[in-house]
Design a protein that fits this description.
Structural class: mainly alpha
Largest sheet: none
């Protein structure tokens, strides 16, 4: 393999990397668009409901009327919408993470194969007496590829941790809503029992 062939291989390798980067960018833009749509729809819906609920709260004549509103499920709608919003966002983030991880893994494997092929071609055409340099380059390449493998494993672990944290946050929110409902129900029951 001559210099032109090696340069051609390197250009081919770079072209594949650029294609992978473009694909990752397109996926990121697509997921960002989905998140924007979810946030816009949720915000619009909540604002419409808040206007009506605020009007009802302001029209309450006494604290018992306000407590009655909390028991009739008016506030449950907000909790349900917030929970649905969080679940939709979590789904998009999880899917994006999976897609990007898969694309990255495929891309890294392609890079590994291309680099090994390039290194083998370089070694096959190395001048006599350069065995030590070629061996050092191969060792360096192998070490680099092992490092890339460790980074991939760490990235998968981070994605898993983000997903678990998001799920824990949703469960904590559900628990807080349930606790708030019990507290309001208990206070309303006591206030009603005193009369």
């Amino acid at each position: 393999m001559n210099y032109e062939q090696m340069a051609s291989k390197l250009n081919e390798f770079n072209a594949k990397n650029i294609q992978s980067l473009i694909a990752l960018t397109e996926k990121s833009v697509e997921r960002s668009h989905k998140l924007s749509e979810i946030n816009f729809e949720t915000t619009k819906s909540i604002l419409n409901e808040v206007n009506g609920t605020v009007a009802n709260v302001m029209s309450a004549k006494d604290p018992q009327a306000l407590m009655a509103m909390t028991q009739d499920g008016s506030l449950d709608q907000f909790a349900g919408k917030l929970l649905a919003h969080q679940q939709a966002v979590s789904k998009v983030v999880r899917e994006a993470g999976e897609e990007i991880a898969n694309m990255t893994e495929v891309g890294v494997e392609q890079i590994k194969v291309s680099l090994k092929d390039w290194m083998d071609a370089l070694a096959a055409n190395a001048p006599a007496g350069s065995d030590a340099i070629v061996s050092a380059m191969k060792t360096s390449l192998e070490s680099t590829l092992q490092g890339v493998g460790q980074i991939q494993a760490a990235a998968k672990e981070v994605a898993s941790n983000v997903e678990q944290t998001t799920e824990q946050a949703v469960k904590a929110f559900q628990g807080q809503v349930a606790t708030a409902k019990k507290t309001v129900a208990t206070k309303t029951t006591r206030a009603t029992a005193r009369k």
